Amino acid sequence: MRDKWRDYQVMGGEETLHKYLPETQLLTKRSLWEFMNRYNQVIIKPRHGYRGLGVSTISSLDKDLFEIHIENRKITLTDREEVYDYLKDLQKSHYYNRYIVQQRIPLATIDDCPFDLRVMVQRKRGSSNWVVTGKAAKVAAENFLVTNVAQNVLPVEEAIQNSTLCHIQHQSLLPEIDNIGIQAATKLNPKYRTVGFDIGIDHNGKIWIIEANFNPVISIFDLLIDKMMYETIKKFKKG
Ligand SMILES: Nc1ncnc2c1ncn2[C@@H]1O[C@H](COP(=O)(O)OP(=O)(O)O)[C@@H](O)[C@H]1O
Ligand SMILES: [Mg+2]
Predict the structure, then answer these.
(1) Residue 95 pLDDT exceeds 80
(2) Which InterPro entries is this protein grouped with (predicted)?
(3) Neighbours of 80 (CB within 10 A)
(4) Do residues 98 and 26 touch, judged by C-beta distance below 8 A?
(5) CB atoms within 10 A of CB 76
(6) 55-62 — which CB contacts under 8 Å span 24+ positions?
(7) Would you say 139 and 113 are in contact if contact means Cβ atoms under 8 Å apart?
(8) What domains does the chain contain, in order, with CATH numbers?
(9) Rounded to an integer, what distance in angstroms lies between the CA atom of residue 191 and that of residue 73?
(10) In b/e form, how buried is each residue of 88-125, taking b as 16+ CB within 10 angstroms?
């Protein structure tokens, strides 16, 4: 079973990758408030989750004023116990009940919608040589914080140019992302031959590894007008 907590620990064990990982802990009352004090805004998500299910953001708006953002809904709560009780209920409604808490990255946005990148890293059968075979930007639907319900899939260069990153020197960003993808796949060393990383870029142009998906769907790349990456990805999957 996929496990975001385990993946975080494995990748974080590599010194060169550590700085790209948002700080993460298993969710407890204590870790939640420690992170809230440190970051003011945190993400909680199921360890074994997928497709953005159960991912929510908790923000501190003021002293004793908190906002929980889940899917496209926002709820305001006025004390810490209420926040924790709310999260407990949320966890009960899923069959998995183990969550992680994570520093929320202020993702770069396009028209106020956050986006992140899906970076495909693949190896051929019998080879340990990982190759980046595709990258695409997933833009969150309006009022969503997760990009899983993507309203739009764009070529990475186009996304960056149309985003809050347009004035940032981004020539070195893409090679750096490729490097991170290859290092992370090598470290994770999965039995699968395709890893799809969710890679975030914050407003300052800093790169973050959000998660690793093993054997992910490749249909995102069929949504791009240029089918080059889609064809390459399919070729790697076969061989
Ligand atoms: N730490 C974070 N900071 C900002 N956005 C995040 C963070 N973690 C997740 N997200 C957003 O939520 C989406 C879903 O989270 P992810 O960890 O990929 O879980 P899932 O397995 O459900 O896809 C990400 O693609 C990203 O858009
Ligand atoms: Mg994801």
Answers:
(1) no
(2) YheC/D
(3) 15
(4) yes
(5) 11
(6) 55/145, 55/146, 56/90, 57/104, 57/145, 58/32, 58/83, 58/87, 59/104, 60/36
(7) yes
(8) 15-103 (3.30.1490), 109-238 (3.30.470.20)
(9) 38
(10) eebbeeeeeeebbbbbbbebbbbeebbbbbbbbbbbee
Alpha-carbon dihedral 71, 58, 64, 92, rounded to 10 degrees: 70
- Ligand 1 binding site (Cβ under 6 Å of any ligand atom): 22, 43, 45, 49-53, 55, 102-105, 107, 116, 145-148, 198, 200, 210-211
Residue 22 in this model has a pLDDT that exceeds 70: yes
Could you give the CA distance from residue 175 to residue 27 in angstroms, rounded to a whole number?
34
Residue 67: band (very low, low, confident or very high) from pLDDT cuts 50, 70, 90: very high
Question: Which two tokens mark 112?
Answer: 């106020």
Residue % of the chain over a pLDDT of 70: 97
Whole-prediction pTM value? 0.95
In this prediction, residues 32-55 reach a mean pLDDT of 93
Average pLDDT, integer, range 52-56 = 90
Residue 197 bridge partners (DSSP)? 119, 212
d(CA 87, CA 73): 14
